[in-house]
Amino acid sequence: MTSTSTEPIELQPDLMVVEPERDDSGALRAPDGGWGWVCVAGRFFVVALVLGLVSGFGIVYVEIIDHFDTTRVETAWMSSLHSATYCITGLVGGGVLERFGCRAMTVAASILTSAGFIFSLFAQNLVLLCVLYGVLTGAGVSLMYTASTVIVLQYFDKKRGLAMSISSLGEGVGMLVLPPLTYLLIETYSWRGAFLVTAGITLNAAVFGLLFKPPPYLSKAVQNNTQRRKKDMLQSFKHLLHKKLFFLFALGSFLVHAGYTVPLINLIDLVDLKDIDKSQSAMLIPAMGVSTIFSLVLFGWVSDFPGVNRTGLHAGSIAVMAVSVMLVPALDSIEAFFVFAAVYGVFMGTWHMGQAVIVTEIVGVELTGVAFGIHTLHAGVGMFVSSLLAGWLFDITGNYVWSFYVSGGLYLLGCFVTLLVLIARHLATRNKHRRDNAPSAEVRPLSQS
To answer: Does the pTM of the predicted model rise above 0.90?
Structure first.
């Protein structure tokens, strides 16, 4: 017999691979290992590619300005359209993931991203380049990152911080390898040749996406029944609407991402304008990558310690990033910029690792797919604003001083909102503890006359 329930967590016992475990609240419990470690390895490569492409755009950005002889705010539309598509795709990505699964979504997204690079190299004007690069690669990158993150979150519970930190090491490796590789490819083959080679590299993500097998506690019925999947997707969105704390956290992420692209995309241009050798400035992003690897190993391990508050660690990381970004305009030597890159990279890695983990802590593993898609929407909108704001501020002031000041200010606002989430979660936990430990009222029988 098949179940007729429309609840997303109801499973059909005759079709389950493994009886799912549940915690005290009745929520599904992830297996904490097994094939999940293979998914961790797959996500390592995918996020290396995704963040490497984003951080390497700062080098492409400078080349495009010179090639098309255009302004910085006009060229910033490449990154802004990329971010806009990233956020729109994030809005639907959770639903697509619910219906097709992480494996199919990653393979399709890698092909889409590769096609975006191939079509972009034929663009003969900036407008067409912005559309092709922004829309196609933006959608592909968003879907790849969402699917690779959700599959790891679905496999882990108590070891979630460790699993995410290990898989997120790919972010540091991507920042270490792809920006200097992009610089080398541009110097050798021009930016068009660099796009062609990058398209080939991107296709490798499809191979790793094939490793993303669904965890065994998910029902085969949900995986194979299309009509049931549609109901599950709608139910998930309805359940998510009641998670007000999640939307507050997403607002904080929007604010941080609104300042996020400034140090990644505009740092190299800022250093070049200070007459520092371009080959030296190209190594700043790899320096960030090295320090990111260090922080992911250290703080990913620490975040799983009993008593460690991941939300507090997340807020502290944002605060340090804010201060360091606001100090950038005052730097005047390549050594000082390398110190900034090291400090920023350490806390950027901690911040990156914490986002997905905290989302899952707030909404539960069952709503992770849809919730992370909505979170990606907020992040993408922020990145869209960030790119245009930095270019516009440069064009009206003639320097990047206000771009970095505003970026740091947005970080601080995001930190404040995250602290509100921390306080709200603390109060909710304390109230629940009081209710659970409150003495039950004693029922006294009525005396008979």
So the answer is: no
